Amino acid sequence: MKKILSKMKASLKMSSLLFLVGLAFVFAMFQGGFVSWFLFYSFLPFAIYSFILFCYPIHGFRVERVLSKNELRTGENVGVKIVISRKTSFPLFFLLVEEKLPKRLEQNMTEAQKKIIFPWFKREFTINYSLEKLPRGEHFFKGIRLKTGDFLGLFDKEAVFDLPGKLLVYPAYFELPYRQLDQLFDQGRAGTANRLQRENSIVSGVRDYQPGDQLSWINWKATAKKNDIMTKEFEEMKSRDIFLMLDESPTERFEAMVTYAASFVHSVSKKGIQIGFYRTGKGGDALPVRSGELQRQKLFYSLAKACTNASVPIERTIEKNASIIPSNAALVIITGGMTLQTVEWISLSKINQSITIFSINRDPSLSREEIVAREFAKAKGINVKYIEKELFEAGIPEVIAQ
To answer: Which InterPro entries match (predicted)?
Structure first.
């Protein structure tokens, strides 16, 4: 229907142009004299130009978009160059170039989204613009629209060029202090140690007794020598593998959560620790525990696509997907809201490893419910850390609300 209306509109405009040319010719014939013929011959070039433009193949233009970089970090800038070329030198009075950007990128343009240039006889022309302070995510370019017209305003030619492109913006990250990472392997085991079947593991050494150790783990020979209770140390207990879960429930603190998760992944990967990852929202495929630069890139790519689309709370997700969590890895959860109910559900889940929860807080002070939830978690052997959102975004990730 739209195509039919467009053709009818073009035919009507062509009929109007021919009518004007005929009217000018008839006026010159009947009126005679220099003035009337001067008007006719003055109008004739504009009419001829409009007729040629009506047949001009603007769809034959070649349009190319070139990005200075395809992968960036949050907050960085990218330069965009649009190159337009054509085969003929037919003069164009103007050319309107419009970049169809995703909505999240429109507000990051330093210049107007539409730009008018005056190519005239040029066969190739270039437009440059930049996108600044890019938001995290996977952004897809759509296409470019070109539009031109004649001097009389009767005809306009328009063409849309489908130019798909992708811009991947990874989350920003900071260097986390070592003490925060090291605490993952020293805390949060007391309440869960008795669930682990250590008897079937390989004994690798002895260590001091810790609350929660079973009597069958006590090494009596070492205890007699040192005159202090010593327990067996198993290979599983020396494992420094981590399985990270990101809570994608809707919250205003989500970007801070993603930034902290990226900082955690970066710092852990630098130390050679194996890490797996899972997002609780839709499309959050589990990444198995691995190490190396390739694993780091996979985790950062998954974090770049993270969004608040989780339909169930984090505790229900853990209960439902407990099978994807390796039994010999420390579970680390990053969330934006810690409640007593969350801790209760997590503690009841059949997970046989230590659990550490990082809760990104909006305020520097803790509410009564958060304090109670932390104490309850501590009693269950779950390590809870509250991180102040504003301080972390300012680049001070080591400050933890106590």
So the answer is: DUF58
pLDDT one-digit tens code per residue, 303-335 = 999 988 888 878 778 777 777 888 778 889 898
The answer to whether the beta carbons of residues 97 and 127 sit under 8 Å apart is yes
Strands 71-73 and 156-170: parallel
Q: Which residues of 146-180 are buried (b: 16+ CB within 10 A; e: fewer)?
A: bbbbbeeebbebeeebeeeeebbbbbbbbebeeeb
3-state helix, strand and coil shares in percent for the chain, rounded to the nearest 5: 40, 30, 35
62 and 84 in contact (C-beta within 8 Å)?
yes
What is the model's pTM?
Answer: 0.72
At residue 193's C-alpha, the angle toward residues 370 and 376, to 5°, is 15
The DSSP element (H or E) to which 152 belongs, if any, is none
Angle, to 10 degrees, between the axis of helix 2-31 and the axis of helix 33-55? 160
Q: Pull the structure tokens for residue 343.
A: 């801790």
Q: With contact defined as beta carbons under 8 Å apart, do 353 and 316 qualify?
A: no
Domains detected in the chain: 58-170 (2.60.40.10), 178-198+238-401 (3.40.50.410)
Instruction: Name the strand (E) or helix (H) holding 358.
Output: strand 355-361
CB-based burial of residue 184 (10 Å sphere; 0-12 exposed, 13-18 middle, 19+ buried)? buried
d(CA 259, CA 3): 48
Distant-in-sequence, close-in-space partners of 105: CB < 8 Å, separation ≥ 6: 131, 134, 135, 139, 167
Give CA 34 to chain center in angstroms.
Answer: 69
**Which residues, in sequence order, are bridge partners of residue 169?**
72, 137
